[in-house]
Amino acid sequence: MAKRKNSDTDLKKYFNDPSYRNKKRSSGFFKKKKPRLIILSIISVLFLALVIYIISGLPSLEELENPSPQLASKVYTADGELLGQFFIENRIETDIDSLPHFLIDALIATEDRKFYDHWGVDLSRFFKAMVKNVFTFSREGASTITQQLAKNLYDLKSSDENVFDTGIRKIREWITAIQIEKNYTKKEILELYLNVSYFGRSAYGIESASKVYFNKKSIDLTIPEAALFVALLKSPVMYDPIKRVENAVARRNLVMHNMVVTDKLSESEYEKLKTQPINLPSERIGGIITEAPHFMEYIRQKLTPIADRYGFDLYRDGINIYTTLDFRMQRIANRVVAEHLLEYQAIFNKNWSWKKNQDVLTVLVDKAIKNNPLYRTAADKEEKARIYNKLKYDQSFIDSVKEAESTVQAGFVVIDPVTGYIKAMVGGENQYFGRGLNHVTGIKRQPGSSFKPIVYTVAIDNGYSPAYTLLNQKFNYKGWSPENSDREYSGYITLREALAYSVNVVTGRLTIGEIAPPNQVVKYAHKMGINSELNPYPSLALGTSEVSPLELTSAFGTIANNGVHVEPISIIKIEDRNGILIAEFAPEYTEAISPQTAAVVTDMLQDVVNYGTGAGVRRYYQYPAAGKTGTTQNFSDAWFVGFTPKLVAGAWVGFDDHRVKFTNWYGQGAKAALPIWAKFMEAAYKELNLPVEYFSLTGGVDTVSFCKETMKLGDTRLATENCPEIVTDIVLSRNIPPHCEIHTDGAKIKREDRKGDTGW
């Protein structure tokens, strides 16, 4: 009782006497408690901060429920082949049901044998690994497939981890793995894992890896190939099948042995499979090698401006892009162009001399130095001068300039004239990585004589017959005096012959009068598909205004398509990753010229191929064809553009810099460009079994006879029995003058006009 009284007294004093209270505070009781409370408080705050730090690095609930790894956007050809991809991470999604079962067996046998039994973390395996690592100084992993998925899917690992970071990351992995197991089935976890894992060589996901390493779909993998991919999961660098073949084979065999241990592979089959080498289709792997790199870049240029409008990210959203390209035609085009350029590079090298063109080399080296990154990023004029002088006398640099500038380039494009679909495109000498200019869409060059069909189209549409004659003699029109390429001149020749033999002075005469005035030629060219600016001068007749190969080929397609111009199109539709339509594209049609005019010009262009400057086509291709050669001044550019009833194609051959050029007649369009066109058509029709069709004359076009000397469509003078020469030709019956008597062999022929009247 006495003790209780003392306690009560102390309490009263404590609350009633401030001096006593202050004395108690400084007594040993509070002195003993204070450090402990401070330590506990600090520990609590640090622990709370650690928890907040760990939680802050975890994926959100929305991310867990809707993971969205960056997906490669896939580009498909019209015949269903995967042409290429656009990506930051080269990843293609695939369904687990489309994967071979032995791939799953190999994965589980090697990476996580208790996968179907644990809840995201295998604690027993973790502690065993820790003990083994401590006592053997090894680095055995203990992460489950779900933990690895968490690390890959949500980017939980950084490149510069220390011990503390590793510990934090492991805790986050565990928490995230448990959450993943709560949200997904085991099957879905496996599917996600194989879709997001990195297999080296820029390949994310098993489908991309199958394409990159073996150029096949994942469903077609063999057991050793599947085992190699499981091996690469441990380290794409250490087990790289190109740089570290022995390591890759050993690890692959270990994976297959794990399948034996887990009863997923027989011992006898393992013994047979482990001796197989790793057969890669090419050592040049490390990204998607497409059959049409310049076409892929063309597609990218088309999609980039419309991405915001349609709400897609080309490099992350995994959209599906369906194009017009025909994969089989593209392969034929690649082969034909490569073979031709190999041959022509050798011819050029024999005929070109840098010693004789030292002035050209000086200019090109100067240009190359000023475009060099070292020179362009130099801090000041003195540094630029130092770099300039160093490179100017660097023989290896000069040799690289020589090689680059003397490389024969080509542009070749194939279009369906009816639909406007681009079926094949070869944009340059490099057919794998699309290095440099696209010589189909990215250059503009003088087309030379290959522009002439547009001029003759104007003449025909103005009522002039292919049998109309003009004088094949030089003239001078306000200082312009064109010459024939062969320097040969004769008397009067027909428009048909002038186009077939590419007679410059006759074509020039068309534009200096009212037959095909330059302003009208420009107007027709733009309607037919030429978008470039054209100079309305008489010299336009000889192709002096620059155009792109795609434009000129499209204009020829207008002639082939009965006068209807169809704007070239490369993309048919875009779908999102789930197959939902984002956008659809249709070709634009414009009636540019009458079908009758188109039919007449087509017939004239057939003669170019049958006996004119394009007769070289017949060495390779024997079926109906029409086209026109083109050679620019000093053999700078060689062209051939032509068409069959099904396809229109254009070929350009030349150099990136005009100062380098072919040196003599081997640089003619008929020799340098025509073989590409002819060999492609020959191979396409033969290998793809394309039906052979013949050009048909459109309604309103008749075959009649004309007096070669006097008759012009629309001329009121009659052909008489005294006409020195009668020629048979196709003409526009709508332009034949009424009551016209046409004589052949002295016999008058009365023809019905288009309305059926017999007035002439």
SSE inventory with pairings:
Blueprint: H1 2-16, H2 18-25, H3 28-56, H4 61-65, E1 73-76, E2 82-86, E3 90-91, H5 101-111, H6 123-136, H7 145-153, H8 163-183, H9 186-196, E4 203-204, H10 206-214, H11 223-234, H12 245-261, H13 267-273, H14 293-303, H15 307-310, E5 320-323, H16 327-351, H17 358-371, H18 373-376, H19 381-392, H20 395-405, E6 409-415, E7 422-426, H21 452-461, E8 469-471, E9 492-494, H22 495-500, H23 504-512, H24 518-528, H25 549-560, E10 564-566, E11 571-575, E12 581-584, E13 589-591, H26 595-610, E14 626-631, E15 637-643, E16 648-654, H27 669-672, H28 674-687, E17 701-707, E18 726-732, E19 742-744, E20 747-749
Parallel strand pairs: 1-5, 3-4
Antiparallel strand pairs: 1-2, 5-11, 6-7, 6-16, 8-9, 10-13, 11-12, 14-15, 15-16, 17-18, 19-20
Quick structural overview:
This protein has 760 residues and is α+β, with helices and mostly antiparallel strands. The chain folds into five domains: 55 residues; 201 residues, Orthogonal Bundle (Penicillin binding protein transpeptidase fold); 52 residues, no CATH class; 271 residues, 3-Layer(aba) Sandwich (Beta-lactamase); 49 residues, no CATH class.
Provide a descriptive summary of the structure in words.
The protein is an alpha+beta fold and 760 residues long. It folds into five domains: 2-56; 89-289, Orthogonal Bundle (Penicillin binding protein transpeptidase fold), CATH 1.10.3810; 354-405, no CATH class; 409-476 and 485-687, DD-peptidase/beta-lactamase superfamily (Beta-lactamase, 3-Layer(aba) Sandwich); 701-749, no CATH class. Helices cover 44% and strands 12% of the residues. It is built from 28 helices and 20 strands. The strands form seven sheets. A five-stranded mixed β-sheet has the order 2-1-5-11-12, covered by helices on one side. It is elongated and about 140 Å long. It starts with a helix and ends in an 11-residue tail after the last strand. The model is unreliable at 707-726 and 732-760 (pLDDT under 50).
